[in-house]
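Notebook entry, structure prediction.
Reason for the run: the old model in the group folder had no record of what sequence produced it. Starting over properly, with the input documented here first.
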Amino acid sequence: MQLPINEAKGGLVHSFTCLLVAFAYACLSPAREEEGRSKLEIYKSKQKLYQILSYLGDGRFHLESIMIANPGIPAYRYDPYSKAFSQELYAHERMQQSRKAAIRRAACAHKWGLILGTLGRQGSPAILQHLESSLQAAGRPYVRLLLSEIFPSKLQLFPDVEAWVQVACPRLSIDWGEAFEKPLLTPYEAAVALQQIQWQEIYPMDFYAGQSLGPWTVNHPSHRPQKWVRTKEVKLAKSLLPSAGKEALKSCSCQQEEEEKASSNLGVESGTETGPRTCVEQQQQQQ
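New structure, fully documented this time:
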């Protein structure tokens, strides 16, 4: 089934040197190109070739995530409900200054708080475990909280916690971080505060990306089940065996197969000797 947006692409493809039609299911997931259904992270894919970002949809929430990851591309939005086409702006410098200030405060914090979001499937236990290991290695005490919704009033109940890291929606820290008394970091920002990674000039919006910067994202390879490990270990063990050992294993397996085959044939022959034909011969001899 061809989407209407791809029908529009057919009429525009001859008017532009580079034309990308992509869609995404979530604001923090990599965009997908409709043709071929191949994953495509816009902010890593030949960013300099694209000069205009046009968003189809109502509201700015999802568009802002794309704008944060593509600060050098002018953004436009078409609202299909109001039929309005407008240029959209984002205060990149102000956002980055705010997040850097929160990271600097958290870097000096002694006691931390880790929040695992329980609303929907936002929270990731794997990221929580990674954060716990990082804080333990840094010698920082911490507390754990499970919250469906994160409000400043709830976090104020823990006055001894000097910095928070929320494993829920990164946009909560980016959009509303200044509303909290203590720094409220994303897992990426916590990695910067703990000196695990340098601050990125282009703020990474790769929380659900398959190829992300580090294990503080949901789909990082370190969080995926390694189904191929056992097969790889078996192949490695066989490669380490000496040639004599390999021949011995091969001969043993062949010998076992021959013995099983011989025993099965023996069972068939013995069955015929004591079977119906023997009974008929005995009756003929008696007559």
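Summary: DSSP finds ten helices and nine strands in the chain.
The old model has been moved to the deprecated folder.
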